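User: Some background: our group keeps a shared notebook of sequences we're curious about, and every so often someone picks one and asks for a predicted structure to add to the entry. Today it's my turn. The entry only has the sequence so far, pasted here. Could you supply the structure so I can complete it?
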Amino acid sequence: MAGNYVNEQADAGTVVALDAYGPKKYQRLASLKTRFDPHNMFRLNQNIAPLA
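Assistant: Of course. Here's the predicted structure to add to the notebook entry:
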């Protein structure tokens, strides 16, 4: 069975989060992160970096 439980992937890197959410959802999450957390204050979890 393939899959990924994101809450158990602390500091695993962008690739794991991208694989878990897929490119379309990851892009939307990164867009929201840019809007609500542009300085990436909440980064000590399964980080999705704000868009540059």
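Suggested note for the entry: Residues 23-36 form the longest helix (14 residues). The radius of gyration is 11 Å.
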